[in-house]
Amino acid sequence: MYKPAALNPASAQKPPCRGKHKIFIGMAPGVGKTYRMLEEGHALKQAGVDVVVGLLETHGRAETALKAEGLDLIPRKRVNCRGVMLLEMDTAAILQRTPQLVLVDELAHTNVPGSQWEKRYQDVEQILQAGIDVYSTVNIQHLESLNDLVHRISGIVVRERIPDRIIDDADEIVVVDVTPEMLQERLQAGKIYAPEKIDQALQNFFRRSNLIALRELALREIADNIEEESIATAQNAHCHIQERILVCISTYPNSIQLLRRGARIGNHMNGRLFVLFVAPAGKFLSKSEALHIETCKRLCQEFSGEFIRVESSDIVPAIVKVALQEHITQIVLGESRRSRFQLFFKGSIVQRLMQALPQVDLHVIANNYSDQ
Description:
Elements: E1 21-26, H1 33-46, E2 51-55, H2 62-68, E3 72-73, E4 77-81, E5 84-88, H3 91-97, E6 101-104, H4 120-129, E7 133-139, H5 147-154, H6 164-169, E8 172-175, H7 180-188, H8 195-203, H9 208-233, E9 244-249, H10 255-268, E10 272-280, H11 287-302, E11 306-312, H12 315-325, E12 330-334, H13 340-346, H14 349-356, E13 361-365
Helix pairs in contact: 1-2, 10-11, 12-14
C-alpha cells in the first residue's frame, strides 16, 4: 500500500521527512520501465495521490506517450549551453509545486552544462530531501561498480553512471523483466528504436548473448540487494566479523578497474571498503597522475569507502601497516609490473604480502584491461 511522505500542515516548521524512492530497473532499454512507472502513477492518482511527471523520455514510443496522458507534467526548463537553449528537468518548479509523488525517467542522465547539478540523480536527491516521494527508472549497466563488467559483456563503455549507494538507499526496487527473445521482438517491431537503427542494435548491444548476460546481472544484483537488506533487518542474525576490503591503487589506469572490483567484493560480502595509495617518498606526481588519484578518491567516496594516502619508498611495509591498523581481511591489487630482474632481487609483492599477512585473502587482478 502506498504511504506518501507528505508534510503535516500542523508541523510545517519542522524539517520534512525524507521522501521515499522507488526505482524501476531493467537489463536494457525497451523492457518497459517507464511504462510500468506511468502505470503505477495512474493507479496512485486514481487513489487520490497528488502525482506529477517531473521528467519523461518517450524516445518516440507511441505507447509510452499515450500512457502519460492524464498525468500532470512539469514543463522542462530552458538551459543556455554555449548559446544553444536546451531543455532539462525543472527541479525548482517541482519543489515549488510540492506534489506527493514525482515520476522521473532516466536517473543516470547527465544534465546540460550550466545546470545546478551535474547528474539527474542529484536533482532527485534534492526532491527526496524536500519530503517528496520519487519513482525513477534506470538500466543495470548504469551502475558504477558494474561498468567494467558491462564493458566486457557488451564491448560498450557506458558513460552515464550512478553511484551504487543510490540503489542501496532506495526504499523499493522493482525489476522490470522480459526475456531476451521478447526484447528483440520489440526492437524488430520498431518499439524501441527508429527503423534505421534496428539492424545495428541487433548486431551490437541487443545481441541475444549480451541480453542474457545483462538480464542475469540485473536479477543477481537485486537478489544481492534484497539479501543484504534481510541480513540487516533480521532479528536473529548471527554475530559475525565484518569483512574489510583494502584496494591498493597506483598511478596506472587500471586502478579504477581495481577499485570497482573491490567495491563489488565489498558489496557481495557486506563489507567495508578502504582504498590505499602509496605515494613514492620524495617524488612529486605529474599533473595527469595527480588528477588520476583524485578521480580514484572521488570514486572511493561514491562507493562510501575510506581513502588513505601514505608516503613510503617501499610499498609492501606501507600496505602491511595499513592492513594491520584497519583490521583488513581482503586485499585487492593488480598483478606485478616488475621485471624479472627486480623480482629476483626484491621478490614479488604478492609473495611478501602473503608472508607478512597470512590471515588476509589476496585478490590479484590481471592488467589486461584498461578502463576508459
